[in-house]
Structures are given as structure tokens and as C-alpha cells.
């Protein structure tokens, strides 16, 4: 089995995935950002890195087409979005239906979009967390695969809360990818998630 991981920046989830000893080859790490710091984690491990710079493409469709062509050179079983900050076109998302996943730093459907930790604190929620989901054309709205809960503390700031959520992301994302590689997770044609044999 093989994975392609897409990043835009820091790459801490990429690092957690690389350190997890997954039963898969990381065929390539691809970024829209030539300066993505997370590339360092791939290079350390001699994993192929590729840049598809969105700034070189006038239309979103053109960027997504170039990205898709690059990903498909590796024919991955799973495409993993790990802090990939570009909105993807329906054509792209449909092409990878059932083998494209994302991690989002909130308990979806609460707080889709950016700045989730500040918004969670402002809303006064007592439980926050992160979500791994299949990607569908509406951003942060795909079928949920797994979530991890993080209790909110009285004295939390967005930064402190983000750090605790990130710890859970680093645990949850490799776990879900492992389940997917083991054939335990499927997206049905009706858009439901089926999970077998995990606790
Ligand atoms: C994470 O919080 C992830 O949930 C969100 O973007 C952030 C990426 O962080 N989608 P990193 O690049 O993996 O460190």
C-alpha cells in the first residue's frame, strides 16, 4: 500500500504519520508552498517531495488538475491532507472519493473553517477536539471517520488549547490511516462511513 501526503506548512501531522511505522510506503509529500517547513521531515527520510505552486495557476481548476496529475504519478491507495490549506474543486474531490481524508482541529460539525480554538473558547464549549473525515466538495463537511475529545480548561488560551488538541491529532491521524490501510474503513456510495473491527 502507498500514501501521498499533502501539506502547506509546519507538517507536524506529517511527522507523526512518518514516525508511526505504518504498513505503507509514503510515496511522496506534495505541497502548494515551496517553503513548507514540513518538507524537512520528508527529506530527512529520503521521501520524495514535490511542489505544485498554486501561484503558477490562474484558475483553481488548473491548479487542481496539476495537483491531481502529480499525485496520480504515484497511484496512491490513500491521499492524506495534513494541514493542506487550499480549497479543492469538486472534480478533484470526486476523483479521489473514498481515498481522500483530512484532519480538522475541532469536533465537527462544530467550527468548520479557520481559527477553531479561539472560536471554541468564545462559544464556551467544555469539550473540544479534532476530527478525521473523508473529503467531500463542501470544506470540512465530509463523513466523519473518528474524533478525539479534549476537555477545555478554565484558564485555556487558544494557543494552549491548540497544543493539547494537536497532541490528539498526532495520535488519531496515524491510527485512522492504519485502519484504512488494514481495510477497516470504507466510504459507501451513499456517503456513509463503515468501520469494521476497531475499538
Ligand atoms: C492542524 O491543526 C490540522 O488539524 C489543520 O492544520 C493544522 C496542520 O498542522 N488541518 P501541521 O502542519 O500538521 O503541523
From TrEMBL:
The keyword Transferase applies. N(1)-(5-phospho-beta-D-ribosyl)glycinamide binds at residues 11-13. The active site is at residue 104. (6R)-10-formyltetrahydrofolate binds at residues 60, 102. Its EC number is 2.1.2.2. The record marks 140 as: Raises pKa of active site His. It is an enzyme of class 2 (transferase). CDD domains: FMT_core_GART. Residues 3-177 form the Formyl transferase N-terminal domain. It holds the Pfam family Formyl_trans_N. Keywords: Purine biosynthesis, Transferase. Pathway: Purine metabolism; IMP biosynthesis via de novo pathway; N(2)-formyl-N(1)-(5-phospho-D-ribosyl)glycinamide from N(1)-(5-phospho-D-ribosyl)glycinamide (10-formyl THF route): step 1/1. GO terms for molecular function: phosphoribosylglycinamide formyltransferase activity. It catalyses: N(1)-(5-phospho-beta-D-ribosyl)glycinamide + (6R)-10-formyltetrahydrofolate = N(2)-formyl-N(1)-(5-phospho-beta-D-ribosyl)glycinamide + (6S)-5,6,7,8-tetrahydrofolate + H(+). PANTHER family: PHOSPHORIBOSYLGLYCINAMIDE FORMYLTRANSFERASE. Catalyzes the transfer of a formyl group from 10-formyltetrahydrofolate to 5-phospho-ribosyl-glycinamide (GAR), producing 5-phospho-ribosyl-N-formylglycinamide (FGAR) and tetrahydrofolate. Belongs to the GART family. This is Phosphoribosylglycinamide formyltransferase.
Amino acid at each position: 500500500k502507498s500514501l501521498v501526503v499533502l501539506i502547506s506548512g509546519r507538517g507536524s501531522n506529517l511527522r507523526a504519520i512518518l514516525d508511526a511505522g505504518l504498513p505503507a510506503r509514503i510515496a511522496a509529500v506534495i505541497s502548494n508552498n515551496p517553503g513548507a517547513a514540513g518538507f524537512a521531515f520528508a527529506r530527512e527520510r529520503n521521501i520524495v517531495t514535490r511542489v505544485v505552486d498554486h501561484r503558477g495557476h490562474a484558475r483553481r481548476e488548473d491548479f487542481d488538475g496539476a495537483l491531481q496529475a502529480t499525485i496520480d504519478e504515484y497511484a496512491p491507495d490513500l491521499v492524506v491532507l495534513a494541514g493542506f490549506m487550499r480549497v479543492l474543486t469538486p472534480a478533484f474531490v470526486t476523483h479521489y472519493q473514498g481515498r481522500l481524508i483530512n484532519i480538522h482541529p475541532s469536533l465537527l460539525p462544530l467550527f468548520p473553517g479557520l481559527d477553531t480554538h479561539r472560536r471554541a473558547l468564545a462559544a464556551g464549549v467544555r469539550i473540544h477536539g479534532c476530527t478525521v473525515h473523508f473529503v467531500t466538495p463542501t470544506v470540512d463537511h465530509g463523513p466523519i471517520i473518528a474524533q478525539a475529545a479534549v476537555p477545555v480548561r478554565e484558564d485555556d488560551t487558544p494557543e494552549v488549547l491548540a497544543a493539547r488538541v494537536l497532541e490528539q491529532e498526532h495520535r488519531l491521524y496515524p491510527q485512522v490511516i492504519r485502519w484504512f490501510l488494514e481495510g477497516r474503513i470504507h466510504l459507501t456510495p451513499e456517503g456513509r462511513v463503515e468501520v469494521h473491527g476497531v475499538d
